[in-house]
Amino acid sequence: MSSASTPIFILSFRHRDELAGIAERLGWKPIAARRTEAAERRFVASGANIAVVDARGALDEGLAAVQSLADAVEANAAALLVLFPRRSTPMLDAFFSAGATHYLTSPYKEAEFAQSLRFAARYAERLAGGRQAIEGRTALIEAQTGFWRWQINSGRVTVSETLAERFGLALDQSGTVPIGDLRLLVGEAAVDAAWIAMQRLLSDHRPTAFAHDFGGEEGIRIAHHLHLEDGGQTIVARVEELDAPSSARLPRSRDPLTGLDDGPSARRWMGERIADGAGMVLLLVAISRFDMINAAFGRSAGDALLQGVARRIERMAGSGRQRLIAHMAGAEFAIGLPAPATTEEAGFLARRVVEAIERPFAVGDHLITLSCRIGIAAAEGEGDDASALLRRASAALADAKAGEGDAIRTMDAAGIGRAETDSRLEIDLRLALDQDEIGILFQPQVSVTTGEITGVEALARWRHPRMGELGAPVLFAAAARSDFLVPLSAHVQRKAVTMAARWPAPLAALRLSVNVTAADIARPDFVEHFLAMVDESGMDRGRLTVEVTESGLIEDLNAAAGLLARLRASGLRVAIDDFGTGYSSLAYLKALPLDYLKIDKRLAEDITGSPRDRVVVRGVIEMARSLGLAVVAEGVETEEQLALLAREGCNYYQGFLCAPPVDAAKLENLVKERNRAAR
After folding, report:
1. CB contact at 8 A, 668 and 504
2. Residue 631 in contact with residue 596, Cβ under 8 Å?
């Protein structure tokens, strides 16, 4: 791969600038450091796929650096190259055990260093899943990076949008600011240091750096990594936010993927401040439907997006020892604001975070738009603790996920209510599949003309150990809030198809309808996995119908049409469920390869209302029939509804008029009785 396409992270205790200069001559973009403090975070933020640890003259420090970087290197599918003296080769085992993947002994020639970097790059490329995956990740990380560029003797400086936003600079249409605004970037106290560093760069043409405190924010330092471009005519600075040495009494541990504090470190930080009586406000940020992103674009793109989200949250929230920014787990982040912060201030910050995350991310050839939900809770004085605070913030987050409109919710101890129940359900759901608490019931689909049961729809039921039986709406809502929709959907589909494949003779001719979710449609390999599951069960493909709701199709109609066409070509039937509830119904009938149209139960209920209501239902049925589609009415509960639907030409119905959802044993008895009477 081209070395110029990606940065390289260098940690050298004795030869930082020299090594950075060599790397730059070889075409790499060096991000160089002299100290191990927060090295893993700095490596992750750099977007590099190679970390170089220079242990020459500093073996103990080098070994410690490798140990600190190892998890981050592994999590980011990167390589870790160690440089050390040839006389120290007996320590090779220790370095490899600590996490090194490559080594080079000195003295060495520049060409040998170049070859070692190429070997390391190829290794990282294989780990990441190919060159395209690395380039996409690098592009996304660099899009979040702050930089400024000054063409020497020019009166203006080009500044990245990221940096301008962080420092409050007003860019003109060309993305530049007056040269005098550089003082705002470096601070008045660091102007001399910046000038000396630039003179040093122009003198020896070696990359260099300088650092300074950021404004009045305690604990934040900014590093400017300088190098020359355009034959020495342009100074380019990559700007990096550093942690100041921490004064915290408790140790900090890092999340290897994002470089942020991890969950245990976040809990220690919260516990310490609550125990001191200082107080704090906690924000929990959850990226919505992130499992669909991983399914659609791959794990590498998903990891890069999480890193991009981490950088945007850092810019919005600030960093340093006074604030907590952590990657808790999965697609969830935490921001801790110490006293005297208020929930109002937290709400203002939350809105900025929502806006930042909703700006598109560029991953390879794709522009990916994310959304998020945020729960806010404040420590409530004596007797409170980190666990209780997390529960309240989780309850607020669950409420934000469940509600419409505002993506932000604030919760106090008195207001948990339903949100806490929802949060509890999200946790319980992850155990429900393993403990076989998710069962399947079947609701009969009946021929309007003969009265025979011709098919069934599979419906999930959760046998919750404390709350009793919970229906599919509650179950799938909990799955959507917890990004557990794909595993749940696959479990229900597999269980229903496996059960139907083993039915006794009286049920063997029934069609089975199973639901396909929007998360399923987003998976590029869904059709292959679904058909393999059907064939493995022994189910006849010709007996199976997949039902997709309107709301599951709105996001990408073309992709949905292609997926459904492949399912039909394989022998399955396709139905659109809950027709009439979305805004694109006519477009669906025109674009999608369908066999059945299922009228939403609200339309079936309306048929007994005003003449205008009946005209709407009649129009839907006539459209379906003109397109050669069979019509199934849901939620039919009365003979009057059935008679009016029959008059309009409806083919099948399901609802309590025939039976509620039943288990397989009751279904068998029902089919025997019903079909015997129909004959």
Report:
1. yes
2. yes
469 - beta bridge partners? 463
SS3 73: helix
Please name the residue that has the structure tokens 């301008």.
Answer: 164
Task: Write the CATH number of the domain with boundaries 429-667.
Answer: 3.20.20.450
Please name the residue that has the structure tokens 């959802």: 661
Task: Round the CA-based radius of gyration of the chain to a whole number and report it.
Answer: 30
> Is 279 in a helix, a strand, or coil?
coil
Query: Which CATH superfamily is 3-142 part of?
Result: Response regulator (3.40.50.2300)
pLDDT in tens, 409-418: 887 655 554 4
**Can you give the three-state secondary structure of 184-244, one letter per residue?**
HHHCHHHHHHHHHHHHHHHHHCCCEEEEEECCCCCCEEEEEEEEEECCCCEEEEEEEEEEC
For the stretch 532-560, pLDDT in tens is: 999 999 999 999 999 987 555 545 667 77
**Helices 110-128 and 16-25, packing angle to 10 deg:** 80
Q: What whole-number distance in Å separates Cα of residue 332 and Cα of residue 547?
A: 31
The CATH superfamily of 263-415 is Reverse transcriptase/Diguanylate cyclase domain (3.30.70.270)
Q: What is the pLDDT of residues 30-55, one digit of tens each?
A: 888 888 877 887 888 777 889 999 98
Q: Is 178 helix (H, G, I), strand (E, B) or coil?
A: strand
Classify domain 145-243 by CATH architecture: 2-Layer Sandwich (3.30)
Distance CA 207, CA 25 (A): 10
| HSE toward the beta carbon, residue 592, CA cutoff 13 A | 32
Question: Cα–Cα distance between 334 and 332 in angstroms, integer?
Answer: 7
- Going by C-alpha positions, the residue among 13, 42, 10 that lies closest to residue 24 is 10
What is the torsional sign of CA 414, 419, 421, 425? Answer: negative
- Nearest one of 674, 654, 669 to 459, comparing CA atoms: 654
Question: What's the CA angle centered on 388, arms 385 and 389, to 5 degrees?
Answer: 85
**What's the confidence (pLDDT) of residue 142?**
65
Integer Cα distance of 527 and 568 in angstroms: 11
Instruction: Give CA–CA dist 49/24, Å, rounded.
Output: 16
Neighbour tally for 410: CB within 10 Å:
22
Cross-strand pairs, 236: 149, 227
Report the distance separating Cα 39 and Cα 24, nearest Å.
20
> What does the alpha-carbon distance between residue 310 and residue 329 come to, in Å, rounded to a whole number?
12
Q: pLDDT tens across 616-673, in order?
A: 888 888 888 888 899 999 888 888 889 988 988 999 999 888 988 899 999 999 998 8
Helices 343-358 and 299-317: crossing angle in degrees, nearest 10, is: 140
Label residue 2 exposed, middle or buried (CB < 10 Å: 0-12, 13-18, 19+).
exposed
Domain parsing of the chain, residue ranges: 3-142, 145-243, 263-415, 429-667
Tracing tokens 């787990």 back to the chain, one arrives at: 329
For residue 499, list its beta bridge partners: none
DSSP structure string for 299-349: HHHHHHHHHHHHHHHHHHH--STTSEEEEEETTEEEEEEETT--HHHHHHH
DSSP 534-576: HHHHT--GGGEEEEEEGGGTTT-HHHHHHHHHHHHHTT-EEEE
Task: Report how far residue 348's alpha carbon sits from residue 330's, in angstroms, rounded to the nearest whole number.
Answer: 25
pLDDT of residue 4: 43
Residues 6+ apart with CB under 8 A from 583: 554
What does the block give as tokens for 591? 């674009």
